[in-house]
Amino acid sequence: MKNMKTICRNLLAVTLIVVSIIANAQEKKLPNIVILATGGTIAGAGASSTGSAYTSGQVKIEAMIDAVPNIRTLANLKGEQIANVGSQDMSVKVWLDLANRINELLKSKDCDGVVITHGTDTQEETAFFLNLVIKSDKPVVLTGSMRPSTALSADGPLNMYNAVALAASPKAKGYGVMVVMNDEIHSAHAVKKMMSTPVQTFQSPDEGMIGTVIFGDVQLFHKPHSLNTTASEFSVDGVKELPRVDIVYGCADMSPDLIDIMVKAGAKGIVIAGVGDGNMNAGTLEAAKKATKAGIIVVRATRVPIGAVLINGEVNDKEYGTICSDELNPQKARVLLMLALLKKRSWDDMQNLFINY
Ligand code: ASP
Fold first, then answer.
1. In this structure, what CATH number is given to the domain that contains residue 53?
2. Which protein residue has the closest C-alpha to ligand 1 atom 1?
3. pLDDT per residue over 310-323, tens digit each?
């Protein structure tokens, strides 16, 4: 009888060991994904599930992960809180912190991909910045939401689920930094926030989306054509701040002295969100010429949401010393210019950056 009891106990112990070995092996088979949280509406909370008032950046990353059903079946997940702000308060400091942390994580064989949760207002800028300075071809995916976590039909949980599925997918290597929202995958180069509040806000109107993720099922259609990540010449190794670049919004009868004011305030570069094909009135063009003669880089972008700005359209760029943003909207042109200004470059080199990135 005593022997029987011992045999049973031993059998139970062996079974438990075998079960835990199998469980461990299964856990090890899943990719390791780190979620870096920065705040935004996806971490936002409001008093009413049907009201529009809420505050961004209220929920911490562990609670956000726990709120997504089955997300831990996709990957072994770790969360880190890098910031917790509405992305209207995103800063160069957080960009540098993010870039350094992602580069460190992706160097390790223990990290297969990174997801960043981020407000949607400036998400395209953060995505584009990281696209230029991350030195890895492992997936880096940004996501967010348009409805706060407390809202009826909050879109954050499914966006996060799909972002983790994409970051965990072996198919997603070498696509540069991506944005996932509303079942769509967009490249950092092409994505634009097109609508102020609807959930289908992120679109790539010039080039189209690069894929879809439906309930975690990843389909990728085409790679982005612009240089990114491992092919990018930019690095923020040891960089503590970036040169000041300001944006002037173009309109009828715009005030030319805005350019002088920015130069006086210390801007090393100015992006004009010009009218049409990156145009500005005659007074502003003269102010731009004065600035470029003084060594300030002036980039002509457009306030129009779709289409590129062309070299020597209505403005003779060589004569005025201006650079064309090509496909980059003003806010992304500003990001590229801040990085480009870390090094002295000829007009041709500077212009080529806007064509290649
Ligand atoms: N203002 C919010 C943010 O960018 C909006 C959002 O996340 O959708 O953080």
1. 3.40.50.1170
2. 86
3. 999 999 999 999 99
